[in-house]
Amino acid sequence: MHLHKYEKYWLGAGIVGLIVFLIILGFGAFYLGTHPQSHGEIIDPENIEANDAFKPENRGLTKVDEGRYVLNIVASAFNYDLGTDESGAPIKNIEIPAGSKVLVQATTPDVIHGLNFAGTNINMMVEPGYVSTMEVELNNPGEYTLVCNEYCGVGHHLMYGSLEVVE
Amino acid sequence: MVTKNQKHVNTNPESEPNLKGTLISVSILGAILLVTWIGALMLFLLR
Question: Where are the bilayer-spanning segments (chain B) (predicted)?
Fold first, then answer.
């Protein structure tokens, strides 16, 4: 088969690109352990409290070590449960010192929701029956809005909260 | 007799087409793809 010289250049670039992508994919999957956020940890959506992380007293932000936090969130139609403060009022704003590592764990008892702190890498789907997990390091101070980015029903736009990364 | 002008006449219909414009346009497309990929990666790394 005859190929023009320029076609060979472009085919070569395509093949090199494919190999580079496969190497990146393999490195991410097998060496770094990258996986979808809901990669198989299952939970009974009818009884999410059977999982310690989603018991009412464990919801919201918990400091587990110096610079390490766990953030447990229950997304439901149409609210994010980020725990309660001392007076029992629901928390809507979370404060985390910059440079902290945060493990975010979320689930839902009803329908598929999104969980996105806009402007950070925390962005995942929350599916009934699964625990979505993601660990991030929050280095950039600022205020980030928590929004649902999977259309979940008539009250979709009422699901919000905020995260403040403070110096 | 072959004159100077006749040398430049293309008598072979299966000769190489000129693909310079094609190479330049796909290279521009390739550059745009690279910029968007690197842009998305930088967004992920800097956030």
Answer: 23-46
